[in-house]
Fold each of these.
Amino acid sequence: MESVHGQRKNEHLALAELNYKKNPPVSSLDAVRIIHRPLPETSQADVNLKVDNADFPWDYPFYIEAMTGGSAKTSEINTSLAAAAKATGVAMAVGSQSIAMKEPAQVAGFEAVRAANPNGFMMANIGAGHTVEHAQRAIEMLQANALEIHINAAQETVMPEGDTTFYWKDNIAKIKAAVDVPVIVKEVGFGMDAQSIAELADLGIEYVNIGGRSGTNFAEIEDRRNRENPYQYDFLYDWGQTTAESLLEAQLAPHHPTIMATGGIQSPLDILKAQVLGAETVGVAGHFLHTLLKDGEAGLIAEITLWQRQLRELYALVGAKNGSDLVHVPYVLSADLQNYLTQRR
Ligand SMILES: Cc1cc2nc3c(=O)[nH]c(=O)nc-3n(C[C@H](O)[C@H](O)[C@H](O)COP(=O)(O)O)c2cc1C
């Protein structure tokens, strides 16, 4: 029998997949067009996809983003994600480990994720309201190489049993100062603005995942979890900045940490576009979950392998030999997105 918290994890998973199938996400990065240049002067063999960052020494600039864990069903999914990460050499984050702080029986499920990929790059995940001790336990339980701290005020607002207090900045700074792995502060799909990104930099945060809108929608998921009174928050389904808008916000920030992106990534071209707009690395959640549930572990491994090949092809197509060359790639924005940028400048 699952606990109430474990049941919530199962519902997140089921509703994310249901929504994905019903309304496949349209990436906000469709509003960004890369300018084709027919003389790239490159070769696919000369492309190096490695991330040039000692904290994240990854072979590929995209990874499996935080989703789940904390119940029998979701631990099984997490272990499959870890096996796919191992087979393809991509990094992976687990979903929030807060459940394992309250229910020690759930620790084993997270330990199993590490056991499925003993040498892979694994990221722990905890909410911004948790104590330093919880953050440290989350890292230990996974022998994590990095820690994601998620910030999710909009999700908590809609969540029937959600938190009502969002004093997070001091706590984030305390966790960052205490732990000895790189810390990423991430949104869960409502995006970020320039000021918040600069404030995180001021707190000493070196990595920010802008976690933008246009993919998995936690306003909708939490609203639908309220079976007795669903659709009470449908006015918040479009709340927040899209992934494309959030990446432009990061460009507008007076100073900013290294940027990571997630939210609505549907193809290797979306990864490339997010990188062209300034993300060093790009996380994929809903699409990989859907692939796993539809095609199994072998199907997910095939999809990630295909994306790795296609991303290399795209780098060569735009004349980039590595991630840092992507800043020179020209692009245009849709009229709407340009309008957003003009108003926010
Ligand atoms: C089923 C599910 C559960 C999630 N749980 C968490 C979580 O516990 N912690 C977190 O930081 N993000 C969580 N996320 C958010 C993802 O990490 C990601 O930021 C978001 O889904 C947007 O990416 P996507 O559009 O590729 O799904 C979850 C996503 C899904 C699909």
Note: The two ends are 52 Å apart (CA to CA).
Amino acid sequence: MALRQQLAYLAHNSPYYQRQFREQHINVADIRTVADLARLPFTTKDDLQRHNWDFLCVPRNQVAEYSSTSGTLGEPVIIGLTKNDLARLYRNEYLSFGCADGGADDVYQLMLTLDRQFMAGIAYYGGLLELGAGIIRVGPGNLAAQLANIQQLQPTALVAVPSFISNLLAFAQEQNINLNDSSIRKIVCIGESIRQEDFQLNALAQKITGQWPNVQLYSTYASTEKQTAFTECGQGQGGHHQPELIVFEIVNEGGQLLKAGETGELVITNLGVEGMPLLRYKTGDLCAYYDAPCACGRTTRRLGPIVGRKQQLIKYKGTTLYPQTIFNVLNSFAEIAAYVVEASRSALGTDELTVTVAFRSEDWVEAPARLRQALQAGLRVLPTLLVAPLPAVLARQQADGKRKPSVFIDRR
Ligand SMILES: [Zn+2]
């Protein structure tokens, strides 16, 4: 029902989709179920970039908030949200934090960007207000301020990029502070995977819980275009789908629908969005879904960990790989304090791959050789390996003035 309403809304209000439906002789009244969506065209990031304002379904003066994508891949896209869209966005995060065992007694420290047109920042903030939780807005980076606030205000939960938590642990250790003695019990992990495809914690998450066994990690996955999060419950068996807010499909290279457990590209259709709703938008993210009931009691489908981004596929020295494979090798080294992986294109048009690492101890002499061996074994090719001091690597993660520290920088 919500899907049919959204389709009728697009047919009435979206210049972009009106044109698509007209050119392709589509009558949206014929689309009644999720399976029928297969008769409609996909929307790509390129479509959204080229025709950005044709997606707006309301008069310009109804736009309350102009969010933008982070621009990690190509030019940023603007997503205009109405006041109702913002209320919907907050509701989505209220439900998400609840799913991740959050409640009114929790105090969340937000270790992320809250301005710079970053939709997720205000979404978390609005959702937590609705939850009745306390909020500490520290923003991204600034390890000293993060640690000081943890000690003074005693939050019970963090929202952060997991590699930043790894940096926080290293920093706390340097200060002789044991975070296991702190008030924190939950970390909602954004922006990076914390699990392997079999739902076991990946090397990065294991590195965190190995040093900090008192916390439980929850993964949440979202993006500006989705205006909706998929968040894990305490069982950690994938991000729960919110069926009243979004429709999703997983498709193969040929665009055909895949079944539960099969990995393909995630395609989404927003529900209940007024400003810039998207229809069959190809996210570029590769994952699988699962439909067995969850031990938490919820019966909604769950999205498995993102195994890679279609556009981030690296073709290097005759091998194809995703950045996550490189992260997994690097994260398995306790001796590495921080790293950044950079892909670029050579003058010959081939991909170049550079890995810059900071070691915890500068006198760890056998490290580069052992790391080279592990990379060679894990990737079957050896990237250019550079060693740099920790502050230089952390600064590199914030390169290009991005809103989120990133361990993968794509210059191709
Ligand atoms: Zn569950």
Note: Residues 233, 235, 240, 294, 296, 298 surround zinc ion (CB under 6 Å).
